[in-house]
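Bench log, entry 3. Co-assembly request; chain sequences pasted below exactly as received.
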Amino acid sequence: MSFTYRHARPAVTVDCVVFGLDDELLKVLLIQRDREPFAGRWALPGGFVEAEETLAQAAQRELTEETGVAKVYLEQLASFGDPGRDPRDRVITVAYYGLVRRLDHAPRAASDARAVGWFPASRCPPLAFDHGEIVALARRRLQARLREQPVGFELLPRKFTLSQIQGVYEAVLGRPLDKRNFRRKLLATGVLRELAETQLGVAHRAARLYQFDAREYRARVKQGFHFEV
Amino acid sequence: MSFTYRHARPAVTVDCVVFGLDDELLKVLLIQRDREPFAGRWALPGGFVEAEETLAQAAQRELTEETGVAKVYLEQLASFGDPGRDPRDRVITVAYYGLVRRLDHAPRAASDARAVGWFPASRCPPLAFDHGEIVALARRRLQARLREQPVGFELLPRKFTLSQIQGVYEAVLGRPLDKRNFRRKLLATGVLRELAETQLGVAHRAARLYQFDAREYRARVKQGFHFEV
DNA sequence: ACCCCTTCGTGTCCAAACAACACCAAGGCT
DNA sequence: AGCCTTGGTGTTGTTTGGACACGAAGGGGT
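Structure output for the full assembly:
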C-alpha cells in the first residue's frame, strides 16, 4: 500500500534566529518580507527545505541566501507546527538559533528579502507568522545555554578581553555581574588561553587579550568536565 | 505565484519516547512494527501528522492509537530529518518524550503495531530508522530535565515515599545518591506536601507518603524560584 | 512472646563554592 | 602634570554540598 501518500503533506521550512552583539546590546537578525503573506513585515530568515539536504544544511543555506550571512554557529531550537500559523497552508517549521560575530558579517538583503536589519532582541518589531514566539523561545534557550556551554565566545572576535566577554554575559542574562567573581570563575574553567597581546588604540589602559581554547575544552569535556558560569 | 507548491514536500511524522519505571529500572515503551519498512523491528510509537492537529496533539494521538497509552506528560524533544533516514521517502519527524506512571497504563498493541513492550532504556533492541539515536537523545534530555524541573514525579503514583522518588533519580541518573542529602535538598524546595498517611501492606516500617504540590510549585516559580536537585 | 530482618528517619562536620566588597595601576588626552 | 577612563587584583563571611552511622518502627517467622 502506498502508506506514504495517504496523508496531505504539510510544507516544511526552517527559520533562523541569529543573535549578534552591538554595543553590549543583544540583537536579532531579521529580514523584511518582500512577498505575501506578511509582505513588508519583518520576519526570521528561513525557507523551504529542499529534497536532498539535512535540516541543518537547509537552515544555513536559507540564512545565507536571504542575508548573506554564512558559516554560522547554528543549533536546533524547536519545531512549530500549529495549523494556521501560516495563512497559506499547513507549514511546519524547524527553528534554529545561532550566534555570530557581528563585525565578521555584513548582511545584505537578497532572495525574497526586501531588507535586512538587526533589532534589539528585547524589542523586536511585530513579526510575521509566529516568529515572535520563536524569538522569545530562542532567547530563553540562549540564556540557559550560555551558562552551561561555552557559546558566548561565538559573539566576540576571536581575540577578546575579559571585560568584553563579561559584557556578553551581562547582555544576554540582562543583569550586571561582579568583575572579580566573574573573572575568577571563567578563568577557573581553564578554557581561556591568555595571549601575549593587549588591546590597541584604546584611550585608556589596554586590556589583555584572551582566546577560547576549543581543543582544551574538548579534552576536558572528555574527562567529565562541565563548563558552567 | 504558487510559492507554496514549488517544493517536493517531505512527509512529517511524530514519534514518542515514553519512559516508565519498573523496579527502579528506567524503561522505554516500544512497538513492534507490522509493516515495511522494518517490519518486525522494534520502533518508537508514532505516525503521520494529520491536517488539523497540532504537533503535540499528533504525538498524543499516535501514542494512544498504537499503544493504548493516553494522557501522558509529553514534551517536544527535537526534529530529525536527514534525507535517507526513511528508505521510502523523505520523512521529517518531530520527536517527543514523555513520562508515565507505569501502573496507570496497560499498553496493548493496536493500529500498525504488532506488539508493544517495555525495554530497558540502556539496552534497547536494535530499532527501526534512526530511533536509536532519538532514544539516546531523549535519555540525555531527561537527565538534564530531571535536575532542573520537577518532572520525576510523573513516573510515580501520585502519593509516593521519599525512597521512591530517590529511586527515580537514581534510575535516571544512573548513580546512587545519599539518602540524607537527597531528602534535605528535595524537601528544601518546598514543593512536596507531606501527607498524614503512610504506606500500607509493607513488611517493614511503613514510610510516610508525600505528594507533589503543583500549585505551590507554580507560585514559587512566579517569584523567581528555580527547582534544582 | 520473642527475635529477626528490612526499611525508615534523622544531624554534624568539613570542604568547596559563592557573593559582597574597594583600591591602585596603566596609559592616552588636554 | 594632572585628568579621566578602564584594567587588574584578594579577603572575608555565608551558603551550599558531600561524607558519614545508628536507633526506631513494624511485620514475619519460630
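The domain at 152-222 of chain A is CATH 1.10.10.10 (Arc Repressor Mutant, subunit A). Residues 178, 180-181, 185, 202-206 of chain A lie near DNA strand C (CB under 10 Å from a C1').
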